[in-house]
Amino acid sequence: MSEWLVLTIAMASACAVVLTIAILNNRRVGEDDDPSQTPDVIEYMTMMIGVVYAIVLGLAIAGVWEGRSAAQESVRLEAQALHEVSARSAVYPAEVRDRIRADVDAYVTYVVDDEWRTMTKHGNLTDEGARLLDKVRADVTQYRPRNDHEGQAYQPLVDQVAAADDARGARGQNAGATMPGVVWFGLIIGALVTVGLIFTLQIRRTFRELLLAGLFSVLIAFLLFLIWDFDAPFGRAISATTAPFVDLFPHATGG
């Protein structure tokens, strides 16, 4: 099922539930009921709970967005480090240079075509990706420089392979969901409480009141969906992409 369809269903359901409860609750109110008699303390507490929940939602959105940005940055660093390995190997003999570049391209192709799919579905890296990166490392570290020029390029190449490995590890750590279950529990219960409190204000069936109640519930549903979507940096619609690999290795990724 499309994530945007899920969002549409969630928002429509939240709005429908709130409006249905509002209408049914209004039918139970007696003719002599006066909505202006809502105690001031209820209005104050409703406002305060809404403010607190808004702060919690803001912090949650900021947290998952930061996780998504960190995931995309790890992809960029990994692609850039591998690009440097491919570019700096130009000082080596043709046979060694071509082997390094071929193994780098093989690793990038595998990441884009296969490992990325595994990350999005299962939230983890693959052993084959680790093997291909180890092969690149072996190409670089096992070569013995034959002159000073090659010797000066050796250590930076080793460092770039290490940087790619470190960025790959960060990519693996960011592959799964980042929000703990207890936080989700708090967000959902908070949403129910916040939306439920609007009924303490004796909402009526006027178009204006029902419209505001519906829009409020839709907004809460949308914000929760936004947090859910950002919570998997590689697995959902608004997620990190393979763009750095595609941009730096167009010949290897078909870009």
Low-confidence stretches: none
What structural class do the secondary elements suggest? mainly alpha
Strand segment count: 0
Helix percent reads over 70%
| Count of helical stretches | 9
Rounded Rg? 27 Å
The major pleated sheet works out as:
none
User: What form results from the Cα inertia axes?
Assistant: elongated
Strand proportion:
under 5%
Rounded mean pLDDT is 83
The termini sit apart by 28 Å
Write the H/E string, N to C: HHHHHHHHH
Protein name: DUF4239 domain-containing protein
Keywords: Membrane, Transmembrane, Transmembrane helix
Pfam families: Bestrophin-like
Transmembrane segments: 6-24, 44-65, 182-203, 210-228
Q: What would you note in describing this structure?
A:
InterPro entries: DUF4239. This is DUF4239 domain-containing protein. The chain crosses the membrane at residues 6-24, 44-65, 182-203, 210-228. It holds the Pfam family Bestrophin-like. Keywords: Membrane, Transmembrane, Transmembrane helix. With 255 residues, this protein is mainly α. Helix content is 76%, strand content 0%. It contains nine helices and no strands. The chain has helices at residues 3-27, 40-88, 94-122, 127-141, 148-173, 181-196, 207-230, 243-248, 250-253. Helix 1 (3-27) runs antiparallel to helix 7, helix 2 (40-88) packs parallel to helix 7 and helix 3 (94-122) packs antiparallel against helix 4 (127-141). The protein is elongated and about 90 Å long. The two termini are 28 Å apart. The relative contact order is 0.19.
Give the SSE layout:
Layout: H1 3-27, H2 40-88, H3 94-122, H4 127-141, H5 148-173, H6 181-196, H7 207-230, H8 243-248, H9 250-253
Helix pairs in contact: 1-7, 2-3, 2-5, 2-6, 2-7, 3-4, 4-5, 6-7
